[in-house]
Write a structure and sequence with these properties.
The complex is a heterodimer of chains A (about 475) and B (about 525).
Chain A: H1 7-25, H2 33-51, E1 58-59, E2 64-65, H3 68-94, H4 99-117, H5 122-140, H6 147-178, H7 183-186, H8 198-214, H9 223-230, H10 233-260, H11 265-288, H12 293-314, H13 317-340, H14 351-354, H15 357-360, H16 362-376, H17 382-396, H18 400-426, H19 440-458, H20 461-470
Antiparallel strand pairs in A: 1-2
Helix pairs in contact in A: 1-2, 1-4, 2-3, 2-4, 3-4, 3-10, 3-13, 3-19, 4-5, 4-10, 5-6, 5-10, 6-8, 6-9, 8-10, 9-10, 9-12, 10-12, 10-13, 11-12, 11-18, 12-13, 12-17, 12-18, 13-16, 13-17, 13-19, 16-18, 16-19, 17-18, 17-19
Chain B: H1 7-23, H2 30-54, E1 63-72, E2 75-81, H3 83-106, H4 111-130, H5 134-143, H6 145-155, H7 160-193, H8 200-205, H9 210-227, H10 236-243, H11 246-271, H12 273-299, H13 304-324, H14 328-359, H15 370-373, H16 375-389, H17 395-410, H18 412-418, H19 420-437, H20 454-472, H21 475-493
Antiparallel strand pairs in B: 1-2
Classes of the chains: A mainly alpha (about 475), B mainly alpha (about 525).
């Protein structure tokens, strides 16, 4: 119980406040000072996160506990936030976005995410979720002159608020029946033949619904494509990765005890499996028909939620975290390339804009190809290994059919990921899209993502070691 | 024998090193790019010769074994070669430089990318053959798709995008189900022994319950059958072959198709012997249908490349029929025939490529009397065809006769049907030869039909030399295979009937862990 447990969180929140303060006094909208401050505060948060490894810090009577899982996820959040800030530097001025606001909101969202993953208390998680949500609604609507962005923000806000209400109502039911706010304790009493008291079961169902909303699980995914497409591209990269990661980790913490021992697993297990299968297929099949690369990646993000849910069903933490980290690199990289493709006031995301990119921008096209092949799950990239671990965990736990469904869904995904590569390499350009040359920060991000994608596919040794330590699994 | 040098790793990753080196060369300097790629491929071949000469083969066990921990939990880097894989590695290392050389004129767009993908493909192909760990095998098996996808898709013909997508999706469909099979084996082995392992030797040592074997054999078998391709899963092959650039066709026919057959010999049959024995009759019938169907289809093709492609379906059918005969002679014949098919079909594609480079048409009716203008080419083309048709004295005869002996021991009716391949292949090949090379010159004014130049001679002559050598001295190669094949046959002959079962993992709560004991 030391105050140091709050250090990463405080670093981020302090950064957010400073950024917003500076922003108010800056004359120039696209000044890079807020971004610098944001990166510094993220560095500080990273430092405190790494420092807390294995110290088992906690605060607020253990309500906020930095267990290894939470720390791993916090590192992911810090990294993706840093990527997003770096991606936005030039992008913000080109798209007329206020960089200071973007950085401030982003840091607040990270604070919410950190709260979410570092607690097993329903209320604290809700607090984190709301902090995250409010920040992400605003982030989505940052392109003030773009109607799609505004529409996305409104949609996200409405849907998100509903989900929040579901959460609170479910929480009330659970707290009402158990008198306890801790995940495990509140769901551990046995009353009916199916384990939980009816009210608790309904409450759990409502809470699951709320989380399924947040991580875009079919049939609660309707908002996702529009939001992901309408949001500024770096924000989309953030939204497809970070909230999903946090939501899945919370789901993991809630569901694994329920699925493992409780009799209610008979209902919840199949329900979650069906949701996973639906998500994979709906996401992938819908992506097949898209004409815009950004929207295609939005649907692919939904499909990946499905794969990740398989890891939750299998109850295998290490593979879940590994998948999340691999997904962060490959997805952030793919969106990074989309950012690189954006021009002044426009985003070039249609297939035609990508035609012949392999000739015009060989490096960009090659990077995007690697990310897409990784998303499709080709070895020797991170995406393959991630899928390998998740699906093999599912088979190990007896969900063979689920694994078969998952690989068939990946087969569908291969078709559309390769379609982009076809366009880039095997078709000739009709329009000549101007790609900004000078953007070192963005290229650094793309390079790091490329490095991560390849490194985690070939030698993920140390990361695997860390993850297995976090779950106390022998190597 | 050199024991400390990791020769296999060198052979496998030299092409990859060459490919990485290529990245740093400016794509404008085409000559340097070509030279570096060729040098990397030749160096790989030279290194692979060390495997040939160093290989002992008396024990039948994998030699040159390298094993290192990679991802932990049984996912190791574990490579080695035995008599079954040695020659396929050599074949891949031998044909890649020739394929690279053959495209010096045909490919003049994006040469750097082309050479890069060719070298990548070589690493993938060799990797599949040397892997002794199922995970590693799968990694190479899948990774190899990517370069082939680009090779067909970028440098292919008009319908290249359709062909390459079909190729990838077909192959992926099979291999993803195989991946689930791998998961199941991985989980079952762990459950039974408490150890994580995907080493082939470990997996072959446990006995699986018949039902379990059936499912897994189907999962693995589908992946291999698509790759071979076994009738009726062959539809991707003519498309891919016709659209691929010459170099791609050569490697596709010579090496990639062999992976399916190799997969059965290395994995499908040794790991699931009972299921293999159960399914062998059905698969043999499919293989026989493939032989006849492929031969008849080849007869009516108008395009030279698709003729050769269908002849591959036919020849691979014979190889599979021999593999499913499950006896020593047939297996040896099948392996020998795999090498023959690699050489002769590879050479046929090269010959078609040489004609195409001159006239830019592959339609048979556009040719006629080419022998008059290209006497040297005509001779080499003829030898290649006769090798493919199985003329005594050339390599094809040795392989076919071994196959037929073996198949005869297993099933006389199918042998009678399968022998038709000899007639059919002679018919479609010689008829092709007659229409293209003999007769009056189609267009006497056409000056484009030049005879072979030095580069093309360098490509074809080594293959022809090997074709003749393998026809006259098959012992050089067969004796290195003997022990490994004997071991392979013994491994599933002597596997006792299953005393204990290893079941599909069920839900952990209900299922009592079943026990399997290790044999040996």
């Amino acid at each position: 119980m030391t105050f140091m447990a709050l250090a990463p969180l405080l670093a981020v929140v302090a950064g957010a406040l400073i950024v917003l303060l500076i922003e108010a006094f800056l004359k120039q909208k696209d000044h890079e000072l807020p971004a610098t401050v944001a990166v510094v505060s993220l560095f500080a948060a990273a430092f405190f996160t790494v420092r807390s490894w294995r110290l088992e810090l906690g605060y607020f009577g253990g309500r906020l506990a930095l267990d290894p899982l939470a720390l791993l996820l916090m590192a992911v959040f810090v990294l993706i936030a840093a990527f997003v800030v770096l991606m936005s530097l030039k992008y913000a001025s080109r798209q007329d976005i206020n960089l200071g606001q973007l950085c401030g909101l982003l840091l607040l969202a990270v604070a919410g995410l950190m709260i979410m993953v570092s607690s097993t208390d329903w209320l604290v998680v809700f607090l984190g979720l709301e902090v995250l949500s409010v920040a992400s609604y605003a982030l989505t609507g940052l392109k003030r002159n773009d109607r799609a962005s505004a529409e996305a923000a409104a949609k996200y806000f409405l849907m998100g608020s509903f989900a929040g209400a579901f959460f609170v109502f479910g929480l009330a039911l659970i707290f009402g029946t158990s008198g306890n706010l801790d995940f495990a304790a509140s769901l551990s009493q046995v009353a009916s033949p199916y384990g939980l008291p009816v009210a608790s079961a309904v409450g759990l169902g409502l809470i699951l619904t709320a989380f399924f909303f947040k991580i875009a699980i079919v049939p609660f995914h309707m908002w996702a494509p529009d939001v992901y497409e309408g949001a500024p591209t770096p924000v989309t990269a953030f939204l497809t990765i970070a909230p999903k990661a946090a939501g899945l980790v919370v789901l993991f913490r809630v569901l694994v005890p329920v699925l493992g021992h409780s009799p209610s697993a008979v209902i919840i297990g199949p329900a979650v499996s069906v949701a996973a299968v639906l998500t994979m297929f709906v996401g992938n099949l819908a992506a097949l028909r898209q004409k815009s690369v950004k929207r295609l990646l939005a649907y692919s993000a939904i499909a990946h939620s499905g794969y990740l849910l398989v890891a939750v069903v299998a109850g295998d933490g290490p593979s879940l975290v590994f998948y999340l980290i691999a997904y962060m690199f490959m997805n952030a990289g793919a969106f990074g390339v989309l950012v690189a493709m954006s021009g002044k006031g426009v985003e070039h995301t249609s297939f035609d804009d990508f035609a012949g990119l392999g000739r015009r921008k060989p490096w960009l096209a090659a990077s995007l190809s690697v990310f897409l092949l990784s998303l499709a799950g080709f070895p020797p990239t991170a995406g393959f290994l991630a899928k390998f671990y998740v699906f093999s965990a599912a088979v190990r736990e007896g969900h063979v059919l689920l694994a078969v469904a998952a690989v068939l869904a990946s087969l569908v995904s291969v078709a559309y990921y390769l379609k982009i590569i076809v366009v880039m390499y095997m078709q000739d350009a009709e329009t000549d899209v101007v790609v900004e040359q000078e953007n070192p920060a963005l290229y650094l991000v793309i390079f790091l993502c490329l490095f991560g994608t390849v490194q985690l596919g070939l030698w993920p040794g140390n990361l695997l070691l860390l993850i297995r330590q976090a779950f106390f699994v022998p190597f | 024998m050199i024991s400390n040098v990791p020769i296999i790793s060198f052979v496998t990753f030299l092409p990859l090193a060459g490919a990485i080196l290529l990245i740093f060369i400016r794509s404008e300097s085409v000559k340097t790019v070509r030279a570096v790629a060729l040098a990397a491929a030749l160096l790989t071949f030279a290194t692979s010769l060390a495997l040939f000469f160093g290989f002992n083969g008396a024990s039948g066990l994998p030699e040159f074994v390298e094993r290192a921990s990679w991802l932990g939990r049984g996912l190791d880097y574990h490579v080695g070669i035995d008599g079954i894989s040695l020659f396929l590695v050599l074949l891949a290392a031998f044909l890649t430089p020739l394929a690279l050389l053959s495209s010096w004129r045909a490919i003049d767009d994006r040469v750097k990318e082309f050479s890069f993908f060719m070298l990548l493909l070589e690493t993938g192909m060799i990797g599949v053959f040397v892997s002794l760990n199922l995970f590693l095998f799968y990694v190479f098996w899948e990774a190899m798709l990517i370069p082939m996808y680009f090779l067909i898709g970028i440098w292919g013909g008009h319908r290249r995008i359709y062909a390459t997508m079909k190729f990838v999706l077909f192959t992926m469909f099979g291999s993803l189900l195989m991946l689930v099979g791998i998961f199941v084996l991985y989980a079952a082995y762990h459950k039974a022994t408490g150890i994580y392992s995907l080493a082939l030797a470990d997996l072959a040592a446990i006995s699986l319950s018949p039902a379990f074997q059936t499912w897994l054999f189907l999962a693995f078998g589908l992946a291999f059958a698509i790759k071979i391709p076994l009738f009726p899963l062959h539809t991707w092959l003519p498309d891919a072959h016709v659209e691929a650039p010459t170099a791609g066709s050569v490697l596709l026919a010579a090496i990639l198709l062999k992976m399916g057959a190799y997969g059965f010999v290395r994995l499908g049959i040794p790991l699931f012997p009972q299921a293999a024995a159960t399914f062998a009759p059905a698969l043999s019938i499919l293989a026989t249908i493939g032989i006849i169907y492929g031969g008849l289809m080849a007869l009516v093709q108008k395009d030279m490349k698709s003729l050769v492609a269908y002849s591959s379906v036919s020849h691979m059918g014979l190889i599979m029929l021999a593999v499913f005969s499950l006896n020593f002679v047939a297996t040896e014949g099948a392996l020998y025939q795999m090498l023959n098919h690699g050489l002769s079909t590879g050479a046929l594609f090269l010959c078609v490529g040489i004609l195409y480079e001159r006239t830019h048409t592959r339609l048979i009716k556009d040719y006629g009397g080419a022998a008059a203008r290209m006497p040297v080419f005509a001779g080499l083309f003829l030898v290649t065809m006769l090798s493919s048709a199985g003329l005594p004295g050339l390599n094809g005869f040795v392989g076919e006769i071994l196959c037929f002996f073996g198949i005869f021991a297993a099933n006389k009716v199918l042998t009678a049907l399968a022998v038709s391949t000899v007639i059919l292949s002679a018919a479609y090949l010689l008829w092709l030869y007659k229409r293209v090379m003999h007769g009056p010159l189609k267009d006497p004014e056409d000056k484009r039909l030049r005879d072979l130049d030095g580069r093309e001679l360098i490509i074809l002559v080594p293959i022809i030399v090997l074709i003749v050598f393998m026809g006259l001295f098959p012992g050089t190669i067969l004796r290195k295979m003997d022990a490994s094949i004997a071991r392979y046959i013994e491994s599933f002959r002597n596997k006792p009937p299953v005393a204990m079962t290893l079941n599909v993992p069920g839900r952990p709560a209900q299922e009592a862990t079943t026990v399997a004991e290790l044999e040996r």
